[in-house]
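Page 42, continued from yesterday. The earlier attempt failed because a stray header line got pasted into the input along with the sequence. Redoing it now with the clean sequence only.
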Amino acid sequence: MAQHSILRLHRIPPALPRLLTSALLLTALAACSPGLPLLQPQAQILPGQWPAQPSGKSAPVTSTPAAAIAWQDFYLDPALQELIHAALAHNQDRRLALLRVQEAQAAYGIQSAARLPTIGLGSSHARARVPADLNASGRSVVAGDQEVFVGLNSWELDLWGRVKSLSDAALGNYLALDATQHAVQSSLIKQVALNYLALRSLDERLALTERTIASREESLRIFKRRTEVGSTSRYALTQVQTLVHQAKLIGTQLAQQRALQAHALQQLTGLDAERLPQQLSTPVKLKPVAEGLPSALLTQRPDIIAAEYGLQAAKANVAAARAAFLPRIALTGSWGTASAELDGLFKGGSRAWQFVPSISLPIFDGGQRQANLDLQAVRQNIAVVQYEKTIETAMREVLDALSSRSTLEQQQLVLAEQRAALKERARLARLRYDQGASPYLDVLDAERDLLSAEQQLVQGREALLSTQVALYAALGGGYTTPSQNSAPTPAALQP
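This time it went through. Structure tokens are written below.
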């Protein structure tokens, strides 16, 4: 009985040509599946050069392109570099992005393994007793079935590229997330730099205000003394007090803004308040960058690279959905030894094998495959629109930064000249008051305008530096190449 069972299980299937004939017939039937119109990325008309900025200083011709400058070389301030290092090690958004990359890498490994056959080693050992009334001989029989085999488990022949398309889609998703985490890193560095510049600006404005308060308090002390001896009116004293109160009010407002800015920087970096920079006096230095060509954005901006990989993954999913309409051919087989008794497994004549090819093609599935094809086609169209939108956004960010840099450079010149003029005005107003040629109201207005001009000059310097940071990020600065441990990219997925 056991030997009969083994022969039945390992019977050779019908001839392979008959199998291929069936596959061709099913393929012809599946070829009638309806197709869907798919959007293609429109040709991006990128200008050959960036528009010229009127009256603005451009980066020197010898400047290095932003994408070729590592962030450590662009941000030359040691305190800022320390903050960026802390943020890259602590920030939760970047940690999540890195974990998503690892997740996508593992998913790609699973899907890629499906292209290879699965070979396993197994064994089966069974004993059974058949009662006499169920046996033709009228006697009870005890039989055994012992097998040891190496098997091939339902390996799909990827004749139509379905499994390869799924693997390419998983690879595209992995590379897209890898580029996305670089975009997250670039955005994080930009946020830290902008917060640092804002903190330094507030520190400088606070220092100006404190010096102004000290100067005005000294003036108040002098005027109080003059009022006591009757050489100055009480009205002039109240005017001096107004100047002191104005400066102190500005000081409290700036102190509040600095506290909020420090809290934001603490969240980004994970550092305690004591470890944040405290009123540094050295100016912030940034390396000059060249604008390069607009078309370079396609290979320098990590968000554009991620969008392109996402588009390629969507195309691969559409190809896999189309291949699902074609017959699926799978091979299953095993080779080993079989015997009714355990000690006969490896004796001569105990060899056994099995080869079971199969073809499957659902005739009716309630429209599931067509719905899946529709879904993947819509997702590809969404990826096309997102890709085009990402390019448009990148263009706008660069143009905004270039325009802002040009106008802010001019504003800095105007603000510096205004501050110099108001400083001279304040000196002359005080001199005229001391000589009795004008009321103290002129000094009051001049001092108020001078403080405002000094604050504006500091704010303008911060805005100009912030624009340089935004331009560096918009041009793809800080993003070098995908991770060196990234999986190799097939030619179809290379942007």
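Notes: The first strand starts at residue 64 and ends at 65.
Reminder to self: strip header lines before submitting.
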